User: Fold these one by one.
Assistant:
Number 1:
Amino acid sequence: MAGITKHVANWNERKCLVLFREVPGEPENALLIMTGELGATQHDELISVVDSQEAQANSDLAQVLNGRNFSDGRIMLQALHADGMITKAPVSEVTMTPTPNDKVALTDLNDSIAQIEAGKVNEKPNLADTSEMDAINQVERPRQLSEREAEEQTGIARGLLEQADMIEQDIDRVQQQMMADANSKREEAYARAPDLRPKPKPGRPKKTAIK
């Protein structure tokens, strides 16, 4: 796809897609899809969605994938989660590659977006400008949503909740894998040098029965 392409990145010199720029509650980590680990069909179908106008116009790839299906009928986001294709990685190690010749650190991108969002929050309108006052009034008194619009908002909200649940499950899975790996290395170390194994702490002396 010519021009700038969103969501494409590198991690440890491996191509990937950024599913979440920041893990909720863990801004130092991101969630990635390692494209090299995907099957051929799954890879081509996923890249086709990433290149779509919808994905390129949306800063949240996960939201787009939650509304698209693989050819086997499964929702893309849920299928990637079920197949263990979502990887957590430090934001500081991820580099966005919007073009073959451009590289942007994900840390810098997140900082820039945070500054822009903070500027929008802190921006104070000119009270003499009636158009801005009209906009403020519209925000303060939103119009009543139609039944169809309300259903759409409910659907989007449910999708976001599903994404949050899947992120939490991925975090638990990664933590369990890390703990298992740490325990395995620790046992290997003790097998090589048994003297390094911590000695059990002495227990309390047993109470003698009063006769």
Number 2:
Amino acid sequence: MPSLTQSLAEKTPHVPSGQAFVRDSELPGFALRVTKASKSFVFERRIHGRMRRVTLGRFGMLTADQAREEASRMAADISQGTVPERLRKRRTFGELVDLYLEHHAPVKRSARNDRAVLRNHLIGWRARALFEITRQDLERLHAELGRTAPYQANRAVALLRKMFNLALGWGMFVGENPATGIRFHPEEKRQRYLLPDELPRVFEALKEERNEYARAAFVTSILTGARRQEVLEMKWEDLNLDRAVWRVPQAIGGPAHTIPLPSQLVGLLQQLPKAEGNPHVFIGEGAKGHLVNVKRAWQRIRAKAAVTDVRIHDLRRTFGAWLAASGESLSLIGQVLNHRSPSTTAGYALLKLDPIREALDRNARRMVLGGGKIGPAFAKTKTSPLEPNPMLILTTPESKMKKDA
């Protein structure tokens, strides 16, 4: 059995399938593991009756001498009665994912996106040991995702960087974070929002939407700028329609956020049917469920309105853009949208609700009158033309109402 040298590691061919080992003649347990696609230095020892194997590093990233030095240190520790951390237990990426989702994700606003990344792009990593995941793995993932979704690729690396930092703190992982130093793809910030000539078409399409709850949810998004999940999870207990306020509980981090409701929206919400035993405003499937997947409803609406590139989140951006174009202050807009900003105006965020309510009322009138162009419909109501009733805009005949977002 030869000594495992750099030259021998270079000359050893890959195997067509499975794995093979080239073991060192001088240091028991030190070996080169060869597969169809890679070569790695490993160290093996029997710990408490069970054989443990740890990957020291990939050949090319680590030389034979460097790997031997690390294996020698581990062997010395074992001879002195100390079991190296990397040999105690093989902690997997799946274990880290479970801990992350249980202890860290619930306090993040991006928890839903994190779950999607882990489910869609990293599910195949669950069985891998943490120390086997290398910077090369992350760079490969980043490059592959970046070809079609650079923003998603960057978020995946940022997520992995955070998870490995947590693993270091939790004692699950030792060494350098493999996500450190990976250069992000350039990102072009999305600026899409509904323009003055597009908003009327959206209002017209909303009139034809057969799902009354989806229709009302989209109107709520347009007239308040609230986040999609906040809107869909709205509960009657969080609304005070007499005072025209909505208390948005920040269950995913941050304090509760109060939004004064424009009078146009109050009338719409007051006429929504309630379901006994269901606390949610926008009812979905199940006895106590709320709307979850509104993509199909939005696809119908934007197709009829000929704005097929507008996403649901763009409704929030539309709200902010209309406020900004109307001359409202940035600090007021930031407060209404509940932005977290380190700007110097953040200290003045505790504004009274009355100025915000007036701004939202003015904005709703502009969006409904200037964007909706409803005109003659108001003549049928007691409502002043300057105070339109959106129920005439956004209510469809009962026969068309179906709850199938």
Number 3:
Amino acid sequence: MKKVVIGITGASGSYKYDAVVVIPCSMGTLAEISSGFARNLLCRVADVALKENRELIIVPRETPLNAIQLENMLKLSRLNVTILPTMPGYYHSPQTIQDLIDFVVGKVLDCLSIENNSYEKWGINNE
């Protein structure tokens, strides 16, 4: 099972973990991470994940996006950071807000290779 960092322990490269998820991620935090500016603990943990070549998943929460924000995401994507916007799918016919939230959480868990039934996967159980 993957070890995902929660809290201040991830601010040190000597602490062993497999992944960091920043959810939700504001555009300000995204800009700081993409520029290597570790002004606070959250950005420091993401910076450590980058320098230690650990999995980093960013879940941006804003829309629409401007060119600077897209460039920051592209910069991180080129560093093998997963950019997973909070864009719920609708193919599973969500009925509630919770269904939409579960979809995004399920996608994050999928990226971490953690088995989950948070949403109905496309093509699975679809007749």
